[in-house]
Amino acid sequence: MSTPHKPLVILRPDPHPGERIFRPDTLTRLHDRFTVVEPDTEEAFDRALPDAFAVVGQPDLPAERLARARELRALLNVEGNFFPNVDYDECFRRGIHVLGCGPAYAQAVAEYALGLALDLARGISREDRAFRAGRERYVSDGTADSVLLRGADVGLIGFGNLGRSLHPLLAPFRPTLRVYDPWLPPAVLREQGLVPASLDETLARSTFVFVLATVTDDSRHLLGERELALLPDGARLILVSRAPVVDFPALLARVAEGRLLAGIDVWPDEPVAADDPARDLEGLVLSAHRAGGIPDAFLSIGDLVVDDLTLLARGLPPARMQVAARELVGRYRNRPVL
Amino acid sequence: MSTPHKPLVILRPDPHPGERIFRPDTLTRLHDRFTVVEPDTEEAFDRALPDAFAVVGQPDLPAERLARARELRALLNVEGNFFPNVDYDECFRRGIHVLGCGPAYAQAVAEYALGLALDLARGISREDRAFRAGRERYVSDGTADSVLLRGADVGLIGFGNLGRSLHPLLAPFRPTLRVYDPWLPPAVLREQGLVPASLDETLARSTFVFVLATVTDDSRHLLGERELALLPDGARLILVSRAPVVDFPALLARVAEGRLLAGIDVWPDEPVAADDPARDLEGLVLSAHRAGGIPDAFLSIGDLVVDDLTLLARGLPPARMQVAARELVGRYRNRPVL
Amino acid sequence: MSTPHKPLVILRPDPHPGERIFRPDTLTRLHDRFTVVEPDTEEAFDRALPDAFAVVGQPDLPAERLARARELRALLNVEGNFFPNVDYDECFRRGIHVLGCGPAYAQAVAEYALGLALDLARGISREDRAFRAGRERYVSDGTADSVLLRGADVGLIGFGNLGRSLHPLLAPFRPTLRVYDPWLPPAVLREQGLVPASLDETLARSTFVFVLATVTDDSRHLLGERELALLPDGARLILVSRAPVVDFPALLARVAEGRLLAGIDVWPDEPVAADDPARDLEGLVLSAHRAGGIPDAFLSIGDLVVDDLTLLARGLPPARMQVAARELVGRYRNRPVL
Amino acid sequence: MSTPHKPLVILRPDPHPGERIFRPDTLTRLHDRFTVVEPDTEEAFDRALPDAFAVVGQPDLPAERLARARELRALLNVEGNFFPNVDYDECFRRGIHVLGCGPAYAQAVAEYALGLALDLARGISREDRAFRAGRERYVSDGTADSVLLRGADVGLIGFGNLGRSLHPLLAPFRPTLRVYDPWLPPAVLREQGLVPASLDETLARSTFVFVLATVTDDSRHLLGERELALLPDGARLILVSRAPVVDFPALLARVAEGRLLAGIDVWPDEPVAADDPARDLEGLVLSAHRAGGIPDAFLSIGDLVVDDLTLLARGLPPARMQVAARELVGRYRNRPVL
User: Fold this and answer.
1) Contact C45, C39 (CB under 8 A)
2) What is the pLDDT of residue D2?
3) Which of A269, C220, D208, D292 is least surrounded by Cβ atoms within 10 Å, i.e. has the fewest?
């Protein structure tokens, strides 16, 4: 099916329609260099598997199926989360690259997180609502709780793709950046001018806290009632990674008390219930899982995929997608994004 | 009245109450180093004037009054605009420093302008409103018009205090930054990695346009109907300097047509009329002159004042406030901020 | 031999004496967390191997030896080059991490490369020699060939560890940075503000060229006579990676003709012959393989090692050493550094 | 002599020949916009003076001559130092701009200073000499005293043009930057991420010290024997501003003792005596006043001049040359550069 010069790539990019992640010229590049099969049944998928050089997508790949994929060199996940429907151990044993598309979203999330932080710092959306209701307050009458980001104490909970993309955006504000990331040795942070800190210290000393951690068994409700109570009054919390990292009732209670302002992009249940009291909290900026999934981010997925497939076909290591770590890929507990 | 060691400073900081611009310890520093007089009548002011080393504030200072201020070395404007109630020519002839407090506001305005730009890029306040109304759209359903700031074409109209403060905040987004500033030679911009451009080119090629120009006879309605029509569809305009620079009816018409998104902090008449149609435009982020006047900015004015008074008393040039240019001080047409 | 809580680490750090790469407190950390064996014979090594969690060093590890190392999780190379005395394929099959200490040297090499570039730009060492000989020339008499790095056209040949460390040091000079690296897709470079370019274009358009490539079968004499002839007259070439990348006779001939200035840290044969004509070339800055091997770099190797061993023992992926790529580890042709 | 549209400019750029500071197209711009007179006698100068809009150069301008220069708006110094042959007080009274060309040299000096610092950090010129003498030492044999600039304690003595140009070049090394500048309030430094410090603290805590101060009555021998003794052993001192700031015998004694390494570009007497013992000190990098006067810097002077003349003729303030401060212009004690 494939020719020696055009390795076989199986394309199963759901939940994305192909045109969301591939620009026309990216698709052309893909087809120029690879034989592309888009199986619409499991049977068709199974027929293509023995010759497949790579699989783009996240179909079920248990051990027995992988055993038949004798030529498989790479699994390119374009959804954003690693689900347990693949025998990752077998992939690593076989030297099959397991690649994720997280980097495609990181800049979009970082820019959005900064936008939420500046909104919370200055009351932008709150005062826009007031203006529309004829209740606007001019100049100093409406800025009593406005604060600068310059020189602020800023905490990052987690320092992976998102943190590394956010860091340069924050740098010109010259903040003191404390980072809690139990997966990284302190020296990695110090070399970048960051202050490694415990979770408690990060929370207790930060005016702005960005929650950037992914969900594992260890990080579920990492920010519970006790931890949130460590935040200084008037702190701003930006949640753009995964909802289960935070105890939502505790978070919302603290916002309702006026002790915390929060920008929330991810929710325990999406869509959020119509009568969820969060909808009326003045101290929130409400956002419907919008931080990462923008056209430019989706379209960059296709570029990452084709660039890395091209490298792999040339016998080179991938350079754009995230290489899943053998030690971590089984720990994630993120759910599919609806 | 003053002693040789404690030069006399007349303090008339209106419209600010003194405690807005002086932290307690700043005030202590001021009184430690200077004899401070706060005249509450014009007569008291006139009595203090002959011995005054400096005047903090913007009282009427026509030629005849300046003539009596024989020891005057500096006029420190803490309002933010230079009004024509001072004989500036005489100040310059006498070598009296005319200093402005613009730098105190610049960081606050720059952070706010970036916040508005990110809001417009991603629909943060618009979607917050929708969420509160139960109309939120999840993930890609609500991000069709979302764009990145990274790599964007960005235009700056004016490159003074505000532009210089905004520039480093934009730098990590690696934009192409076109600047229109008729008061600066192109080389000044090029040396900082900026692209000098005409007004028309700046507008026609920018997805984001920051209007940072002050009002002079030349810049009134600098952005009229013709100029706004040059903007690409879907552009984002951020107005944080002075309303008269823009033709508001033309601006609002363009937003109403859905061709432009705008974040507006300054208005032709403040307060804005209750029935102003701008209040209902979905394409706006509405803001009530809130960009600069935040507590931290006000309090830094006092620091600027005391630091520069201290330098002047030591026979050194000022280093923190903005030195008014003889050529420009008479050109400004800004009105007092209510 | 090892206890459950203190995994066994075999330490064979030659060519380094242990104290060169381990600070006393680093060694204490190592011994606190691991059972450390330092075998002084091959037999002792073989006895320790079956229980070894990790090997620090680069002993011969053919397939049969690896087969006995049933617990082995990581091979931590502290020499800096990957030699073919290890069955890397088997390591990858087994999921044994193959880690290199390149990052320990990268900052030292980057700073040195910048130092050489500034020396070549301004004639620092040449004029120091002249001064000592009583031939110094003051002010403009000795600066006719001096050039700025600011705004210069700069080429990087290779963009791995060294390039990534050098890039931020060059950034404030606002150069146009062209990069030739056949292992990276252009987008990786563009995202960092770099200009991807062919080798010929990089050479033909650069005033400063940094040679940062490692040696493979493909890169031997990458810069031959034809390529060097592409450089503009007066160009400055900085060679800090590996000598075989450059055709030395062609390079030295070009310097002798006065068409090129070069800073050379690595040589085809080290030590260089006593009568090597390079020793007398005025257009050279001569350096004896000094760019990377400085005390601070050596000592950071120990930190990298202990930090990554600690992560691995906690079931986390390494974060400080360089993870060898399956595709590349067999391609390197670097020789041991004497 | 001049027409209304082409104001009269007197050009007396000595010690520079005109072609050193004006590119051909810069000269064309100058002649297009201005009537240019180049008087070759004092009489010719006096004849042109009454109509002169600006003087480029530093001719004697005592009060009586200024009195005849009724149209004079600007004095543009192209030598680099302000000498006492001008009645500056009268210039300030008259609102005549006094402009200096310091900014033209600042980048060149900053790059050179960094080059000297990296040379001292790594022994570049010292080991180049050794290599030429057949005494080179390979790898770790010659790097025992090599140190990184990354993370180093760095002191700046003076923070004017030179400091502001050097600062961004040092920033990517993430040093702790202590600054001693008695003309600046601490907040100006803190806002830029610098640590304001006393002279003694700056010296005692810095591994690298850049001497960037100009000469006034206060700064002569600012670094005397007592101050130099505060430096930690092994410190690196870079002197690129003015020799009288340092007590040279004390400096050279300390270098001779092996306690200090120094890069010296300016000398108490230039040319330096043939038998000056400095010529033989291994711990020095010797440089003959070469830091600023390079072709690119000279040629930028012409650009600064024509850009600012153009602004002034349009009724705008200058934007490129340094505006001399009334308080400081009489304090400088720099001598002409030979």
Assistant:
1) yes
2) 45
3) A269
Number of residues written out for chain A: 338
Per-residue model confidence (pLDDT) at position C337: 61
Of A114, A140, A270, the CB nearest to B138: A270
The model's pLDDT over B212-228, given as tens digits with 9 standing for 90+, comes to 998 888 888 999 999 99
Contact A202, A155 (CB under 8 A): yes
3-state SS string for chain A: CCECCECEEEEECCCCCHHHHCCHHHHHHHHHHCEEECCCCHHHHHHHHHHEEEEEECCCECHHHHHHCCCCCEEECCCCCCCCCECHHHHHHHCCEEEECHHHHHHHHHHHHHHHHHHHHHCHHHHHHHHHCCCCCCHHHHCCCCCCCCCCEEEEECCCHHHHHHHHHHHHHCCEEEEECCCCCHHHHHCCCCEECCHHHHHHCCCEEEECCCCCCCCCCCECHHHHCCCCCCEEEEECCCHHHECHHHHHHHHHCCCEEEEECCCCCCCCCCCCHHHHCCCEEECCCCCCCCHHHHHHHHHHHHHHHHHHHCCCCCCCCEECCCCCCCCCCCCCCC
Closest among A316, A295, A242 to A107, alpha carbons compared: A295
Chain C, 300 to 329: residues with Cβ < 8 Å from chain A are 303, 307-308, 310-311, 315-317, 319-320, 325-328
- Write out pLDDT tens, residues C82-111: 989 999 999 999 999 999 999 999 999 999
Domains and CATH numbers, chain D: 8-101+295-323 (3.40.50.720), 105-286 (3.40.50.720)
> What span, in angstroms and rounded, lies between the C-alpha atoms of A104 and A85?
22
Give the E-state strand segments of B15-67 in sequence order.
35-37, 52-57
Q: What residues does B176 pair with on adjacent strands?
A: B153
Q: Does B173 touch chain D (CB under 8 A)?
A: no
Q: Do D111 and C149 touch (CB under 8 A)?
A: yes
Contacts 24+ apart (CB under 8 A), C251-259: C251/C223, C252/C277, C252/C278, C252/C281, C254/C228, C254/C229, C255/C281, C255/C283, C255/C284, C256/C281, C256/C283, C258/C283, C259/C231, C259/C233, C259/C234, C259/C235
Backbone φ and ψ of A325, nearest 5°: -90, 130
Q: D124-132 and C124-132 helices cross at what angle (nearest 10)?
A: 60
Task: Quickly state the pLDDT bin for B4 (edges 50, 70, 90).
Answer: low
Decide if D95 touches B, using CB distance below 8 A: yes
Peptide bond into D185 cis (omega under 30): no
Q: Any idea what the Cα angle at residue B183 is, between residues B102 and D309, rounded to 5°?
A: 120
Q: Do D315 and B327 touch (CB under 8 A)?
A: yes
Structure tokens at A210: 């960005």
For A149, which residue in chain B has the nearest alpha carbon? B111
Cβ distance B287 to A107 less than 8 Å, yes or no, reads no
Best probe of the A interface among B140, B150, B264, B275, by most A CBs < 10 A, is B140
Q: What is the pLDDT along chain D (338 residues), one digit of tens a residue?
A: 445 579 999 999 988 999 999 999 999 999 999 999 999 999 999 999 999 999 999 999 999 999 999 999 999 999 888 989 999 999 999 999 999 999 999 999 999 999 999 999 999 999 999 999 999 999 999 999 999 999 999 999 999 999 999 999 999 999 999 999 999 999 999 999 999 999 999 999 999 999 999 888 888 899 999 999 999 999 999 999 999 999 999 999 999 999 999 999 999 999 999 999 999 999 999 999 999 999 999 999 999 999 999 999 999 999 999 999 999 988 887 766 65
Chain A contacts of C307, Cβ < 8 Å? 185, 187-188
Higher pLDDT, D6 or B14: D6
Q: Are C7 and C53 in contact (CB under 8 A)?
A: yes
